[in-house]
Fold:
Amino acid sequence: MPDYDGIILGAGHNALILQACLGKAGLRTIAIERRHVAGGGLTTVEDPRHPGFLHNTHAFFQRAITTMPWYAELELARHGAHYIEPELNVALLTGDGRALEWWTDVDRTVRSFAEFSRRDADALRRWQHEFVPILRDILLPESRSVPLPPDERRALLERSAAGRRLLEVSALSPLEFVLQEFEHPTVQAGLLFFNGLREVDLRVRGFGHHIAALLASPAKAQMSRGGSAALARALEAAVRESGGAIALMTEPARIVVENGRAAGVETADGERISARFVASSLNPTQTFIDLLDPSLVPHEIRERVERFQYNLLAPLFALHLNLREPPRYRASAAHPELERAFMVIMGLDHVDQFPEIVRHHEAGTIPPTVMWGACPTLFDPSQAPPGRHTAFMWEKLPYRLHGQAANWDSARDAHGAEMLKLWRRHAPNLEGVVIDSFTRSPLDVERELPNMRYGDLLVGAFTNDQVGFNRPFPGAGTYRTHISGLYLCGSSSHPGGNITGLPGYNAAKAILNDLGVRGGFP
Ligand SMILES: Cc1cc2nc3c(=O)[nH]c(=O)nc-3n(C[C@H](O)[C@H](O)[C@H](O)COP(=O)(O)OP(=O)(O)OC[C@H]3O[C@@H](n4cnc5c(N)ncnc54)[C@H](O)[C@@H]3O)c2cc1C
Structure:
């Protein structure tokens, strides 16, 4: 008898969701995690110099978590998760004191667009209306399923009018879509920023539907009460209730393969754990090159792993503040609602800034600052001592600063000071209310979570040959690999990175299907 039914490598949110789904189906599993805490990107840390100030050093804005299928199925609310969805969801503050606003209520968003362009407000409504059924009937179900081979998918889409329209719109690049459908440069910039947030290369054809889908989506940014780690704690509780074990501060050294089948894991401490299958939430390099004996990786698989692309534009630099009072934006004199804005974007006025940002990333240099962030304590006072606040800003910056990631260690604080300067221009009260601050570079991200290679928080680029059935690469796109019993379940699999839990959720379907176990999935 093997020690467990399954071993899961890593204990980020995808791994924990997989583990809890398998546990609910009656399987015995163990997750092996190198850090002292489970949750991966769901991290909340307390400022060691100022107890009571909590900072979310990775994922903070979590899109539509409460509508994810696993959220209800794993009863995460019962396990302590609680989400907040602020009404003024996003505000882009322009240099001339205006604000482009996204509300949870689409009518209010339309009114804000209309202040910039009547025609763009009409386009927003038109696209929203047209894409609601496409999103509901095609894109959402696709993201929650094991992907189909591209030819099969296309043939299926061509059978319906909605499918044909989706193919037509996705033939454009996000940039083409926005320039064709919207006229105001700030509206164009705002829409592309959102798509850029999901790290699609805005120039690449095949992703034109992303913005229309975004406009149609009722799913807005949410935050976890108590900090992002509160979701990790709820997931852990669901795992433990279903009988799962989590081994912290444990690193896998080797995936054991016997008779052509994954049969266990040897840890860096020399312990051998046996199982009927192994599921890796790590990146393809870690899974196929670092942990498998080279004799088990055929030449063509090795080549595909080596060709796997990480995102150029994904790495984030972060500035975190402890504050005596929340930022008060100059623009709120004309727009008092900004005092309760959730995500705030600054430094972005014109669509022409995008090519400039890309050019800087390619050159490894720092572009003029475009940043976004939030003041979590406006909505959840539990993340700071009474009357105090925390706030942060993120900026996309190149991993290899001036050719080398190590340069970040000496450049970090100076860049944080530059971001604070821009922040103060928009929120003058920040002068004199900062109690403490710290910065995190793209290199720090990779140090903490090495699966985010090159600081790529999505763990793999979204390019046409790395999405759906081909993510991470052809032959491993249904969560199954060339080795029987070895599965993938992390962000390098469909539908990709961010806190969606869907790679882990879909991997559970594939594994239970292969084992012939009914998992309670509809
Ligand atoms: C600064 C920053 C901000 C972000 N903001 C957002 C946001 O606002 N919204 C959003 O949705 N997403 C955001 N993300 C992205 C999000 O955090 C990731 O896409 C998500 O965490 C990926 O989930 P995962 O479960 O696949 O992997 P992870 O969360 O990275 O978990 C992987 C786990 O594997 C462990 N591990 C790695 N290597 C090994 C090893 N060799 N052995 C054992 N264990 C190992 C890690 O320690 C980790 O616990 C952000 C990320 C960063 C860095």
User: Anything to note?
Assistant: The chain has a mean pLDDT of 95. The chain has 16 helices and 19 strands. Residues 9-15, 32-35, 40-41, 58-62, 251-252, 281-282, 286, 316, 318, 445, 449-452, 457-459, 490-491, 497-499 surround flavin-adenine dinucleotide (CB under 6 Å). The first strand starts at residue 4 and ends at 9.
